[in-house]
């Protein structure tokens, strides 16, 4: 694999790359606000469909002390007292809005990599001679006007530094854009940046680093690199080098949790469906492997294709389709089948396709799958489940009702149906369009 | 007139699903091309060339109507405040957020946080004007809480 480390003199002689991290502010809440503008500046939370825990919070909701992952029944009082708007996850809407934001970003910068449902990295090397802050402000304005989604942009020489810049852009600027290319400015900011908030540094590493006296990004950057390599693996070493301004971290080494994206730009433009079908099947299979390796399942898969926006002689087309699984899955056969089906629905002949990919959405641990035991299709297809249900029934009959019950079934508050607070699918269902008088 | 209009539409004002779209659990985004795929030919988006005159493709209504897919949303008209502009209850409006609103455009606006569809007047008396004498205009004053959400480029009215 690449990532050869250059010596300091070589770096000085080369021009450093310029990265921008673009991410959407409070993405799920922002999606809801596009169609419910009265919720701007109000506390909004989005609950996971599976277990009713808060997976997204607007800034106002965070300020009320609602923690990430808080179950609804624990925050009922805050919700009632402060009139917090509660939504079930509407990932058909979020997936569509994400596709709109990403396509809008592609208008401006060809070298773009989608990292998660609401984040993307740009390479701005080609724009080096422009006023980057002004350029990114323009991009931000355009995305906000076209899609209604506010974004923040951080500019720096490595992805890790761009993440820091992005955080500053979001929390400390009015413009939503922050450039951290100047080395003195960078030094000043890294000295105050806690290691916990560094991309790729989890809780375990933060604790270990602090025990070694490394509490800030600055200290991490200056630590003995061989020690870092030994204690924190090659990923830790790469983070340290990125802080020094050497770009060497692969996106796959720092995975987002809520989605898995597999995509690729084609070396040669593709006109036929067969090679693209093969590509998305491979992506779906790889996605399945990643899911299983982290013991997760996905509730949906989005397939997308796009032409090369910068080939002006080509007709342009981009589209995506989202397939929902009634039972969350990590089964390769199911994922591949869904990916192919989605591709067939959106593929249009007559275009030169540049890129295709899949995004697995709403990922959850495979242990959290209780609801599906009640789906008739599950019983019909799996004799073991039928046997399990029989055993449960027999035990309950013998030892008394509800000796065995599903945890989701028997809380004091009762079993809550999923998705009952989902907003309309404004952009993917004709029957759920926004109504205007 | 209203009776005639209503009888030409089913209760939910539902549009028919295009024949080449797969049913079931697939959510197709609004940008899907609805042409019947008799020919596979791409239409050049660059400068016109002599060859273009000889290229004939099945007409693609979606591409014709949706100029800017990322910024285009479909919304449903409710009520009769804009019948003078040919917008009737249940019609689908094509809203383009990338267009700069101009005087005389039909716009989707937010007035005090509520969505409304009206004609924008900014020359002379500034107001959001209905196209129905039974409805009152919404004045646009310095302290009004009014925002333009998008410009309506097309209205789709079903006759059957």
Question: How would you explain this protein's 3D organization?
Answer:
The complex is a heterodimer of chains A (437) and B (160). Chain A is an alpha+beta fold and 437 residues long. Chain A is built from 15 helices and 13 strands. In chain A, helix 5 runs antiparallel to helix 6 (132-147) and helix 12 packs antiparallel against helix 13 (332-346). In chain A, strands 5-6-1-7-8 form a 5-stranded mixed sheet. In chain A, strands 9-12-10-11 form a 4-stranded antiparallel sheet, sandwiched between helices. A 3-stranded mixed sheet of chain A has the order 3-2-4. The termini of chain A are far apart. Residues 370-381 and 406-417 of chain A have low confidence and may be disordered. With 160 residues, chain B is mainly beta. In chain B, 7% of the residues lie in helices and 28% in strands. The chains are: A alpha+beta (437), B mainly beta (160). At the A-B interface, helix 5, helix 6, strand 11, helix 13 and strand 13 of A face strand 1, strand 2 and strand 5 of B. Strand 11 (318-329) of chain A pairs antiparallel with strand 1 of chain B.
Task: List the topology elements.
The complex is a heterodimer of chains A (437) and B (160).
Chain A: H1 8-13, E1 19-24, H2 27-35, E2 44-47, E3 54-57, H3 59-63, H4 76-81, E4 85-88, H5 91-106, E5 112-116, E6 119-123, H6 132-147, E7 151-156, H7 159-172, E8 177-179, H8 183-190, H9 203-211, H10 217-222, H11 225-244, E9 260-270, H12 273-293, E10 296-307, E11 318-329, H13 332-346, E12 353-365, H14 376-381, H15 383-399, E13 434-436
Parallel strand pairs in A: 2-4, 7-8
Antiparallel strand pairs in A: 1-6, 1-7, 2-3, 5-6, 9-12, 10-11, 10-12
Helix pairs in contact in A: 5-6, 12-13
Chain B: H1 2-7, E1 26-28, H2 61-65, E2 72-77, E3 92-96, E4 106-111, E5 114-121, E6 127-129, E7 138-139, E8 146-156
Antiparallel strand pairs in B: 2-3, 3-8, 4-5, 4-8, 5-6, 6-7
